[in-house]
Amino acid sequence: MKKAKEKYYELKSKSGSHSPSALLIQKEIPEVNLTIDCCFLSNPYATEAFMRRLKSAISNEKWLASQIESYPAQNAQIAELVSKSIGVKAENIFIGNGATEAISAILYNFIKGKILIMLPTFSPYYEYINKNTTSIHYYPLIKGEDRYYFDIENLFYYCITNDINNMVIINPNNPDGSLVSKEKMKELLEKFAFMDNIILDESFIEFAGTPESVVPSFYNFKNLTIIRSMSKIFGIAGIRAGFCITKAEYVEQLLNSGYLWNSNCFAIFFFELLNNKEFMEEYEKAKDKYNKELEGYGEALETCNPKIKFYKSKANFFLGELVDKNKTVEELMFYMLCEHGIYIRQCADKKGLNDRFFRISSRNEEENKKIIEAFKNFK
Domain of 286? Predict the structure, then answer.
């Protein structure tokens, strides 16, 4: 285990505020039999639905050769595909090479003045800010008994008294999974209409159960940018597919500054499937199956080990806190990894958390049972 630890931290030092990928660990630390990746957040059933379509397509060598040999569709052309599937004008859609590219493009080019970022959060939201034009105000979420949350009135007062003109909200929030309901979110957006920009990240909204997205209300809020990642809900992180819905002038400026062919042929193949009725019906079944299992998994985590506290989540991951002061998250992580082949996310490097926290995702039903058993046997 000592050698595995040393190699892991060497890989971690090169990964910044993110964890080294499971594929990298398997390659560089072969003595660790990593079989369940709970660091990555995706729906494996949705991956299966996509792979069935992709395997069928690439079996046609002529089609595959044409895709590889030719330039892919341009950003604005792919936006037309997304537009049909979500009911938003193509002029308001910017396609990213993954949602992270859309996040960095919006932050760096259009956020100026002061921005409020709630903690804990997804690190690119404070890493990709243009520090020459923007200053960050960190706003800690309230740590409740079983979940994290914020008070809208206190948030409003803080923004007014500090002249905040931009804000980021992740809903459900990463890494704790707390959710602001659609009704409350609309109330917030109306109250903060004075801001220049509100970035609302809905990358995990499909895991929240009943429809909670505010995409249908996008045109009611002139300062709103909505981030959508396809990696998590469709389980396709490797092909890099994401987009944002934002002001038409923002999209035009980005398209005129170099984001022309930033999607590959496999990402475009996926975006085309968003308008395929049979595929979307298959996806809905995969989503429902996964979300149903997710509920039971969350309940099982809450009672699996008194040494660990899990916070309630409306996403497909759970924030855990090691409450036994005689144990460390490092011990827990390498116990899970080396003895059970389960990879979890340490959260000591996340602003707003400390070395007592970690994050665990939900996988398929069989893998979730193994995860629960591993936690139960942590002494």
Answer: 2-48+280-376
Assess whether 100 and 209 both reside in one domain. Answer: yes
d(CA 24, CA 5): 14
CA atoms within 13 A on the CB side of 3: 5
Nearest by Cα to 48 from 302, 346, 286, 353? 286
Q: pLDDT tens, 322-357?
A: 999 999 999 999 999 999 999 999 999 999 999 999
Report whether the peptide linkage leading into residue 172 is cis, meaning its omega lies within 30 degrees of zero: yes
Q: Give every CB contact of residue 221 below 8 A, 6+ residues apart in sequence.
A: 189, 190, 193, 198
In a shared domain, residues 136 and 270: yes
- Domain membership of residue 63 (yes or no) is no
Tell if the pTM clears 0.85, that is, is over it.
yes
- CA atoms in the 13 A half-sphere facing the CB of 356: 12
Indicate whether 89 belongs to any domain: yes
DSSP 8-state class, residue 119: E
